[in-house]
Specification:
The complex is a heterodimer.
Chain A: E1 3-6, E2 10-14, E3 19-21, E4 23-26, E5 31-38, E6 44-50, E7 56-58, E8 64-68, E9 73-78, E10 87-95, E11 106-107, E12 111-116
Parallel strand pairs in A: 2-12
Antiparallel strand pairs in A: 1-4, 3-9, 5-6, 5-10, 7-8, 8-9, 10-11, 10-12
Chain B: E1 4-7, E2 10-13, E3 19-25, E4 31-38, E5 42-51, E6 54-57, E7 65-66, E8 76-78, E9 87-94, E10 103-104, E11 108-112
Parallel strand pairs in B: 2-11
Antiparallel strand pairs in B: 1-3, 3-8, 4-5, 4-9, 5-6, 7-8, 9-10, 9-11
The chains are: A mainly beta, B mainly beta.
Chain lengths: 117, 113
Amino acid sequence: AQSVTQLDSQVPVFEEAPVELRCNYSSSVSVYLFWYVQYPNQGLQLLLKYLSGSTLVKGINGFEAEFNKSQTSFHLRKPSVHISDTAEYFCAVSALGQGSTLGRLYFGRGTQLTVWP
Amino acid sequence: EAQVTQNPRYLITVTGKKLTVTCSQNMNHEYMSWYRQDPGLGLRQIYYSMNVEVTDKGDVPEGYKVSRKEKRNFPLILESPSPNQTSLYFCASSEYGTYTEAFFGQGTRLTVV
C-alpha cells in the first residue's frame, strides 16, 4: 500500500518570502507523484506532477518540486510567494500497478499555506 | 470546457433520509472516483470506477453506494445518512491510468442532522 505524509499542517509566511512544503511518501513499488492546490470553496487543481525523467519539475504559478528517491520525498517550493498563494496544498501518490491499484490516488492530509502581507 | 460537475453544492438533510449526489464529466474519462474531505484527514477515497459497470470500494466505503451505468455519470448514494457522514465530498475523473491528471468537481458540502 501507499501512504503520504505531509510534515506540516500549517505554514505561515510573509509575502515575497520563499516557502517549502514538505511531503514524504511510502511505497513498495515505483510511484507517480503529484501536488494539488485547493483554493477556498473550490475543488482541487493540479499544480505539478512527476512521472519520470528530470527530478526537478516545474508547475503552474511559479511552483516547483524535486523528487528525491533515496529520501522518498517530493517537496514543493516557491522562491517568492504572493497573497494569492494562500490555499491548502495536497501531496498525492499513485502507484505503478495493475488491477485495483491502477488509477488510485493516495493523498496526504494537506498543508494550509497562509501568506501574510 | 473540460469539467466535472457535481450537484448539489450544499445539502442539509436529516438522518435516514436517502440522498443522491450527482457527478458528471464531459471528457470521456474512463476512471471516476469519490472522495470525502474532513479536517485534518485530507482526502479519502470512498468508491471508484474504472469503466461502465465496473466499480470497487476505496478506503472508506461504509454507508455509501455508487453506480456507473453511463461513462459520464457516477452518482454517490447515501441510503440512510448518518451524522458521521457530514463532510465535503469531491468527485474526480481521469483517463484510465495513473499518470494523468485527475479533474475534480467543485465539491458538495453535506450536513446530516
